[in-house]
Amino acid sequence: MLAADKRATAGHLIASRKAKKIIKITDRAAITISGLVADAQMLADSLRENMRFYEITNNRSMPIRALATLLSNILFSSRWYPYIVQIILGGIDTSPRLYVLDLYGSITEERDFTATGSGSPIALGVLESRYRPDLPLEDAVNLAYEAVKAATMRDSASGDGVDIAIISKDGYVEKHIPLR
């Protein structure tokens, strides 16, 4: 599961209250955006096309780890003129996968949860205090919502609702939850 707020900022300006910060790559993978939206959108397009090419060439799905490595290589190759992004890549192949990548291509596989962006310290506090590996899906959705909501209460660059993407062996589902 991936979650993100809806606010896009440009310095102190709220540039959009309807930003889409979760980008679907395939029915098995998506990324979250933290940083420059245009950079993240271009990277998502590149990932999507490379994943299609891999599947056509190899007649099988690309493992999520390979997708994370591809993204890491793209980011590292641009380190002198970096993409200004911090990305969470989530997906499922043989099991759920979660990776964090920074603008230089550093890659970290996370086990249970993570957060990026200006509101991440606040969201992480909520996740660390309430996460359990055995959470039912609806409780996990509520926890993700509460983590993002907490960030919107203390971080002026976050706000305006929560998008959630659920990625499972059954496919990809997105939902929007207004702040309440």
Query: Got a strand count?
Result: 10
| Low-confidence runs of at least 5 consecutive residues | none
DSSP helical segment count: 4
Number of domains: 1
The CATH architecture name reads: 4-Layer Sandwich
Given this structure, which CATH class is correct?
Alpha Beta
Average pLDDT, rounded to a whole number, is 95
Can you summarize the main beta sheet? 5 strands, antiparallel
Q: Residue share in helices?
A: 25-40%
Instruction: Describe the global form.
Output: globular
Sequence of secondary-structure elements: EEEEEHHEEEHHEE
Distance between termini? 21 Å
**Beta-strand residue fraction:** 25-35%
Which structural class fits the helix and strand makeup? alpha+beta
Radius of gyration: 16 Å
| Biggest β-sheet: strands ordered side by side in the sheet | 4-5-6-7-8
What is the CATH topology?
Glutamine Phosphoribosylpyrophosphate, subunit 1, domain 1
Q: For the record, what is the CATH homologous superfamily label? A: Aminohydrolase, N-terminal nucleophile (Ntn) domain
